[in-house]
Every structure is written in C-alpha cells, then in structure tokens.
Design goal:
15% strand; alpha/beta; 398 residues; eleven-stranded mixed β-sheet
C-alpha cells in the first residue's frame, strides 16, 4: 500500500488513480489514522469531482438497555424488535454498490440481542471482510465483555459515547428517559463496566473511538472527559455538537462562541497522543470572523493528531433500516424517506438524494480550504440565513 499512497499532512493523495488504488484496498486495507479516515467524504469528492455512495449505515435494532437524554434516535426505541429483512437480501443490495468502502452498524444497542449479533452483525462483518470494506459498530459497551468475544476483532472501529465526569452523570443522563426505575447501584455498575470493557478491548488492539457531544453541560468538563478517554486506552476522541433531534430536541445548545471556546480549550489541554476528530464542526473557511479562520488553520495545518471530518451524512452515506427497508440520508435527520431496498437499489436512492433540493442547497465545495460545506443539522441550527453556495473560502491551506 505504501507505494500507492503519498501521505501528506491531513490528507491522502492517490497517485495511481482512484480505481487502481481501490482494487488494492480490497486486498489490504490501510490502517485508520489521522491521515486516512475512510468515512470522510473529502477523499471521493476531491478525487472524483463528485460524491459517490461509499458508505452505508444499517440500523440493525431498535432495542437499547439505556434511554440517554441526548439520544438522537430515542423516539424510535422499542421494547421488542420487529422481523428483520433476510440478511442475504441485504448483502445482495450491498453487493450492488461497486464504490462501497465502509459499513456502519448502529441501533439502539446492536449487541443487546444475541440473535441480532448472530444473524445480522456477524454475517455483515464477514461480508465486509471478504470485500476489504471498513466496519464500525456503535455500542454503549455496558454489556458483559463475553458478549463481544469471537467477533469483535473483525470490527475496524468500535464507537462508544462518553459524556460523563463520573457515575452520577451517567445515572442521570443514561436513564433520563427510562420508563422503569433503575437504582444508582445498577447504573454505577454499568458505568464502570463500560470503562473497563473499553480498557480491556483497547489493550487487545481494538480501535475504540469515544465520542463526546458539546453542550452547556459537557463543555466545561471536556478536558476532564478527554483525560478519562485517554486513560481508557481509546485510540480516538470524537467531538461533535449536540444534535437537536428526538430526545435531545429540548436540550440547550451552545452558542457558536461557546462552542469555539470549548474547542480551543480542548486543543490547548489535549493529550498529544490521542487523536481528536472534530465531527460536523460548526465553523467554516468562508466565515467573515478571523477567529474562525484561525481555528480552521489550526485544526488542518498547525495541530498534529487533530482532524475535522467532512461529514458523510448527506454526502457519501445512506442509512438503511433493516426492519422496514426504508432508506434515509441520516438516521437522525428530518429528511423524508428517500426509498426502500425492497424496490430500489441503494445507488438509485443515492442518485435521488443528489437531485434533492436539500442536497443542492448544501453541497458546496472549496478545494483550497478542504471543505465540503455544512452538516444539514448544523446549517439549520446555526446558519439558517447563510447561502453556502454563494460564499467563498477566505483561507487557503498549504
């Protein structure tokens, strides 16, 4: 692989051509690093000059043992799952996507049901491995470690959420919308198990990526959370805005100034060996504020082990519900259903999305500033009056 890619600071340049390089990815995947994040929409857009469907996210369950106050899919959680679409049918649909690079598995809590693990998750992981496709599974890691044995080594990224100072925070936040009474002792046990599972799996070589959202509650403690995530052995700390969706609709959001201050505070006090990935960053190189441009340059040029991911949602990814077959552009947005895998191929649905008015509104692109425009929820929340396609980048990255 080293002969096919030239690694530069914060980007990967394909020398032999995208198609030839992708043939080699099928034989040997590049290690995920700050220089290569296969979920990032930047690579396809910058190399191909257009967006392609490279990522599929599958909602494999609506069951969860938690009811977190910030859950962006909380209203969809149920007490009993429906009957899933046969996995062979789903794999056949995935097989139709020649450009597929990543598969994400989400819920609910995907590991809660052993049947889901056996009949859906393991076949998906085996399929991805056979095609050289990167995989991510989103889990809260509160279940016994034995539930992850025999298959977790086939997962490229084990994604968890971490937004707590201590067990008391976890108790309040993770059971904020639970309809049954849960004791603090039970919540504390789950909290400690999550941290211990993360440490154990990290030591075993699993790529554990912990995500924190920034809100008025978490922002003052983000450095403390970052330190705990480092102590858990995680390879990456993802930082995102709080998405005002589902359970989180009524929660307070940071102002842009507060968000900026939190990011700068984290960068000033971060652990240098822990990769920070800023997802759906609510600042742009077309901003008229110098402090935004300074921050953009700091993230993309000045800092080591810090990246800002160009959001796959709305650019190179679709979400599939394995019970209904419905396809949406994100599992927590408000864009109506785009199609259904019973009657539509995923490439057809993706082309339909590219022609959608919302896609046309937000699919701007600035090569010189390494920006593919805003996440839809971020744009609607913080920049409702901006016409992104009419703006120009005010900074050029070397």
């Amino acid at each position: 692989m080293e002969n096919n890619l030239v690694y530069t600071h914060r980007r990967v340049k394909v020398i032999e051509g995208w198609e030839k390089a992708m043939e080699k990815y099928e034989m040997e995947k590049c290690r995920i690093t700050p220089d290569w994040d296969p979920w990032d929409a930047w690579y396809t857009r910058s190399e191909k000059g257009k967006y392609e469907l490279t990522s599929v996210e599958l909602t494999v369950t609506n069951l969860c043992n938690l009811r977190c106050e910030h859950c962006a899919v909380g209203e969809q959680l149920v007490e009993k799952d429906g009957i899933p679409i046969p996995i062979d049918f789903i794999l056949n649909r995935l097989d139709e996507i020649e450009t597929l690079q990543t598969i994400s598995i989400t819920g609910g809590e995907p590991i809660l049901s052993p049947k889901v693990v056996k009949e859906t998750i393991i076949p998906l992981l085996k399929y991805a491995k056979s095609r050289g496709i990167y995989t991510q599974i989103n889990s809260n890691l509160t279940l016994p470690l034995s539930r992850y044995e025999d298959w977790i080594e086939d997962v490229d990224v084990l994604h968890i959420s971490y937004n707590y100072r201590h067990a008391e925070d976890f108790y309040r936040m993770a059971f904020g919308n639970f309809r049954k009474e849960v004791s603090f002792e039970v919540a504390k046990s789950l909290f400690e198990r999550m941290k211990e599972n993360a440490r154990t799996l990290s030591k075993a070589g699993i790529f554990v990526s912990a995500e924190s959202f920034l809100s008025p509650f978490t922002a003052p403690y983000i450095v403390d959370m970052h330190q705990t995530i480092q102590e858990m052995g995680c390879k990456r700390h993802e930082v995102h805005p709080l998405y005002p969706s589902d359970f989180a609709k009524g929660m307070s959001l940071l102002t842009l100034q507060e968000y900026r201050e939190a990011i700068i505070h984290l960068l000033d006090h971060r652990h240098p060996d822990l990769w920070i990935l800023l997802g759906t960053l609510p600042f742009f190189p077309c901003s008229n504020q110098d402090e935004d441009l300074t921050l953009w340059k700091r993230i993309f040029v000045d800092e080591s082990n810090v990246t800002a991911r160009q959001d796959p949602d709305g650019r190179n990814r679709l979400n599939v519900n394995v019970f209904t077959g419905d396809v949406v552009v994100t599992d927590f947005g408000d864009i109506p259903v785009l199609g259904n895998i019973y009657k539509d191929s995923l490439t057809e649905v993706f082309e339909r999305w590219l022609a959608h008015p919302v896609a046309h509104k937000y699919h701007c692109y600035c090569q010189q500033a390494r920006c593919t425009g805003p996440n839809i929820l971020v744009a609607q929340t913080y920049y409702p009056d901006w016409v992104f396609k009419e703006r120009k980048a005010l900074i050029t990255l070397d």
